[in-house]
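tokens incoming
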């Protein structure tokens, strides 16, 4: 269904805000610059979001909505066969998240925005943490427990939580460190071919870690 003019304007403002807030920061970005870059007027920011702060929070909610679908509606995502052939639900979740991070066109601006907000430790980051990160982490932890055959209580140990963070960290590095990876590998970016190469390595690492801890449990 075709988007209305109002929806198109709203999306343009959010996309622009992601880019400008990520590069310049919230305080250094003016509403005039946002409106001009989005090819609309300042009044549209007030109309759709109430204020520049409201637009900032809308960016946060966009991250929550976009990435929460990986957990709440995984079947809606068209993924390569390597994810469909995952041996465990934990592996499938990590690889699905990695694929979205690597292939999503807006991911770079979203991640840059997220890291800046995390550094500032304000209400915007708290919103993303409470509504996405905390829920997603607990979800992954439960699948980690199932994958290695331990109880939900055992999964809450410091060692297990750090193990899950370490695997999330691998995914995060390939997104945040994309310029370094691409330059060293002589890639132009993450095309489908390069993304599959990364997923193959991640899959091998995940299976090795799962097997090591499954045998030890």
């Amino acid at each position: 269904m075709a988007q209305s003019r109002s929806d198109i304007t709203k999306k343009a403002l959010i996309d622009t805000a992601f880019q400008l807030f990520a590069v310049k920061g919230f305080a250094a970005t003016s509403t005039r610059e946002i409106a001009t870059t989005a090819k609309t007027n300042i009044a549209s920011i007030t109309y759709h979001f109430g204020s520049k702060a409201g637009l900032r929070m809308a960016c946060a909610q966009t991250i929550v909505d976009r990435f929460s679908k990986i957990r709440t509606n995984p079947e809606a995502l068209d993924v390569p066969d390597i994810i469909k052939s995952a041996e465990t639900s934990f592996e499938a979740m990590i690889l699905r998240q990695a694929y979205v991070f690597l292939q999503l066109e807006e991911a770079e601006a979203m991640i840059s925005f997220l890291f800046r907000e995390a550094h500032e430790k304000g209400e915007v980051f708290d919103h993303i943490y409470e509504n996405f990160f905390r829920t997603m982490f607990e979800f992954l932890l439960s699948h980690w427990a199932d994958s290695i055959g331990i109880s939900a209580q055992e999964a809450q140990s410091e060692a297990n939580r750090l193990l899950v963070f370490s695997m999330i960290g691998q995914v995060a590095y390939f997104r945040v460190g994309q310029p370094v990876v691409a330059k060293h590998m002589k890639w132009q970016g993450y095309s489908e071919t390069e993304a599959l190469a990364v997923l193959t390595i991640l899959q091998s690492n995940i299976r090795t870690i799962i097997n090591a801890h499954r045998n030890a449990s």
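note: The chain is about 80% helix and 0% strand.
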